[in-house]
Amino acid sequence: MVDLLNSYKGKKVFLTGHSGFKGSWMCLLLNQLGAEVYGYALNPPTNPSLYEVAKIKELITSYIADVRDYQALSKALLEVQPDMVIHLAAQALVRDSYKNPLDTYSINVMGTVNLLEAIRHTKSVRAVVNVTTDKCYENREWLWGYRENEPMGGYDPYSNSKACSELVTSSFRSSFFNPADYGKTHQVALASARAGNVIGGGDWASDRLIPDFIRTIGHGEKVKIRSPYAIRPWQHVLEPLSGYLMLGAKLLMDGSKYAEAWNFGPNDSDAKTVEWMIGKLCNLWGEDASYEIDTNPQPHEATCLKLDCSKAKTRLGWYPKWDIETAINNIVEWTKAYKQGVEMRSFCEKQILQYFES
Ligand SMILES: NC(=O)c1ccc[n+]([C@@H]2O[C@H](COP(=O)([O-])OP(=O)(O)OC[C@H]3O[C@@H](n4cnc5c(N)ncnc54)[C@H](O)[C@@H]3O)[C@@H](O)[C@H]2O)c1
């Protein structure tokens, strides 16, 4: 079992994408674990944002810059001399990737190349987790969960750019951070992490189910949903983040033994359809919340997507803690607190404690 409490105390963690939804929760988690956090990202991608709402800037050292700018990225890493790097920065939306494939590829692919190359020249780094997605697999529309050794693919530019980011990671691992040479010619343990559809309080991204729901309720409108029968591996944001941190702790401790790809998804029973999710949300929210199906033609998205997480369970001792109903309950509570003007940093910290106690 990984001792998270003692693995990060006093460690310098360089976190890209710290101003985003998952990045902000990660800053809070790392702060609670006693790490020194150095963020590198563009300004928050939404307004409002969890970054502003939970006043994350007060907790960390923040670099506002582009992952496509190799000089700036390399300078920041050399200045910080971190123990560990977690790479979250990305153009993270499927529908935006159809509108702007060029930016999606340059941020998600060249951003990864720039970061790994800069790490090569920063001698302090010992552990790297590159966060990609469950969508990186070649989707066969089957019922089984994808395993880490299955082929990369990606129909839309977002999914495919993340598959490319995985291939870049694999090439850097073979060429420069080879586990066979660990401790001889280098000291970097490089892994990648693939998680499911992440949900949680504080997400305002466009074209995502929960943020669309939050934006709509309270205005007397019905929430519009696309692809009602699409099955997704939904999970609370704290699930994959705890997985990335357990993996990171193993990389710091045992190095090359864990330098590979890892899935962090929910249990099979929590892979639900979009319509099931929205029905549950409406029920829990109350106040006559309701939804309707958007029948307009939509760009292609996979219908069935599940992850097989046997490897993380067996070798890292990582297990999902909150089932889908608990996750939705926590989102409803978070959103109601936010709407009532509660101080949200403490509220998030309380949810983090509840998560680890459960
Ligand atoms: N949210 C999900 O459901 C989900 C699921 C699987 C994987 N992921 C992955 O997790 C990561 C974080 O996702 P998120 O939901 O927090 O996304 P987000 O859009 O909320 O945040 C993206 C972050 O990347 C930064 N960024 C974007 N372009 C940049 C650039 N050119 N240079 C520097 N920084 C840049 C943004 O400033 C922000 O900090 C992404 O890599 C995403 O692909 C997300």
Protein model, in words:
- With 358 residues, the chain is an alpha/beta fold.
- It has one domain: NAD(P)-binding Rossmann-like Domain (Rossmann fold).
- Helices cover 42% and strands 15% of the residues.
- The chain contains 13 helices and twelve strands.
- The strands form three sheets. A seven-stranded parallel sheet has the order 3-2-1-4-5-6-10, with helices on both faces.
- It is globular and about 60 Å long.
- The model has no long low-confidence stretch (mean pLDDT 94).
- The structure holds nicotinamide-adenine-dinucleotide.
- Nicotinamide-adenine-dinucleotide is lined by residues 17-23, 41-42, 45, 66-68, 88-92, 107, 131, 133, 195, 197-198, 205.
Shape type: globular
Shape-level CATH architecture: 3-Layer(aba) Sandwich
CATH class: Alpha Beta
Helix content: 40-55%
Poorly predicted runs are: none
Supply the number of structural domains.
1
> What is the ordering of alpha helices and beta strands?
HEHEHEHEHHEHEEHEEHEEHEHHH
Instruction: Give a short account of the largest sheet.
Output: 7 strands, parallel
CATH topology: Rossmann fold
Question: Order of strands in the sheet with the most strands?
Answer: 3-2-1-4-5-6-10
Report the bound ligands by name, code or SMILES: nicotinamide-adenine-dinucleotide
Alpha carbon gyration radius: 19 Å
